[in-house]
Structures
1.
Amino acid sequence: MPLRQLSVAVLSMLCVASGASAQRYSAPVWKYEPAQRWVGVWARSGSPVAVDGTQIPNVPKTRLPGAPPPPVPPLKGKYLQRYFTIRAALAKGDMRFDAAANCLPPGLPGMMDMDYPMEILWSPGQVTIIAEYMGQTRRIYTDGRKPGPDTDPTFTGFSVGHWEGDTLVVETTHLRANVYVHAQAYLPLSEALTVTEKFIPIGMGPDVIRYETTLRDPLALTKPIVEVKEFHRARGYSIMESICEENNQDKVDLASPAKLPAAPSK
């Protein structure tokens, strides 16, 4: 085939592909969204505070002699049983249930609770959050798209957002089981988990975002868990590359391939 004919054929194929994509997701119309003022690097301030007294307890890897055990989270059935199994293993130094030991990301909502900073980016119809820890990326769609019947569970799930004034309200579904809730909270949850977030800007900058999280899991939780934390703008800071596999000398990683702990059987 002559080069000119080949070029025309390739161009035609690209046009067809572009048309198919445009039919699935129409290009969002540019319009002002408050997140345009959020672009930059942010860092978590302090520890999460429970709104209704339902604190998500961390499961300490070690506990001082005589110290009381951590409070039991509102789990039920086999998920509560698995929680006690995990807690007993960690107390013995058994890190098989620590997915991070095998360099697997915490996912959502755990990635929003790291001590590492995150960067917020904005584009029409989408807010993107890039966490420094393990380079995790999540996309919050504000263009009206919804998850489809073939949407697979992932570490960060499928996030759909809408604006209520200057507040971004996000609902995330299609999360993998056993994502981290906190940086150290090993809670066995199910793929029925729904995470609802509210990003509430404070001040004119804004330089502070109040972040409210509600976890609902009809299979694993006896009631929703609601928490609040704050993110503060980290001016003059750029997120860095974070490669977990580099110099990872954890014994779990050396003994077995990276894999998620098995979820409770259905």
2.
Amino acid sequence: MTESLENLLASAEQARREKRLADARCDALAAVALAEQADDSESTARAITLWARSERDLGDKEVALRAYKKAATIYRDRRDALHLAHTLRHLGDIHQDAKRAAEAEPLFREALEIYRAHPAAPPLDLANALRPLALLQHDAGNFDEADQLWEEAKNLYAQVNVLPGVAECAGRLALIARQREDPERARQMLAEASTAAQDSGDYNSQRYVNEVRTWISG
């Protein structure tokens, strides 16, 4: 990778962190062109991923979708399993946000299969792959699978001390228990969600748990 390409990639990442989204997109696109010109597939995939993120940040989901697909093709060709899984999850997220569950599900499942098979898969990445599939199954009323997925994700979030994740998963498990008319488990999961939300200090987590408490009590 040339120094100019590395500088462009770093600039795009910095602009995104600073919420200068148009600058991030501009730098990412310049990096894509430079990487493709250099026939550097690794850097091209990285640059395209940054471009896709910036397009998604700016609200152009369909352009982001096309960019992520292009990055996924490169990662698959390079046999870069973990980057492929991460990209597939983002593709699934875009479809899920657009209410295209049929398109999202196989992407989530492939990402999850890759993470489960990879010995170096970070627990947080696995948890983040479990979450959208659990949400999809929960919303579809497939409570048996959703329960298993939320439980596994909850344990992984706890393992890496991501308390907002624990709070959400436990809250979802409480809702499933309520749906199954299992008040004891619903209370248990709600208590776990409440503790995680309070310990996290995250306002959104605390608000979510309060909403779950209201739904369960209703």
3.
Amino acid sequence: MNILKITKILSLGLVLSLFLFQAVLAGEVTGSTGSVDVEPEEATSLSVPLGLSAVQTSGELAVNLSWSAVSGATSYKIYRLGADSGWESAVAIATVTSGTSYKDSGLAVDSYYYRVKAFTSALESGFSGTASVSLTSVSINTTTTTTTPPPAGGGGGGGGGGFTPSVSTTTVSGDSNNDGQVNILDFNSLMVNWGSTTVGSVADFNGDNKVDIFDFNFLMINWTL
């Protein structure tokens, strides 16, 4: 009798143990899984600026540059050389922090090659493709106004009409005294005003509000022989 009771108790304990084991196992399988927050990776590189173009500014010895925006870039640096080589040692001539264009002024008649890089506070892109331009001489703008005199009165008629002689106005880049020639007098004016930053200075031939070597270039290009 006692053995039967012991057997029943052991069987009951075994069944209970199996039940508890299955319950624990089910809890591990169906239990909720915790989530892991993954921070977004920071950008490790910048794209190269595309679509760089270089065009001579109309009527000026200057170049208009433009390119496509680079995602994430906060500034761009402009590089200029006289040949399409040696870029790795090139020094930027300007930094653009707003927009995707730049005007390179005060140049001479020559060929120029340009490249652009994009920047953030921590990253730098590679060079863009090369854009080149060959500047040509700036033409002299001449405006002439002529008034034809009225015909002479006939047959002892009344007094003739008024006569206005022809007027010729010539604008010459480098002609500081407006005498229609670029010569030593204009050179003297350049020397007197050298370094001036006065707006509208008579010796500021390229209009960049500074009398410097670029104005001397204009003087030499348009020198009257």
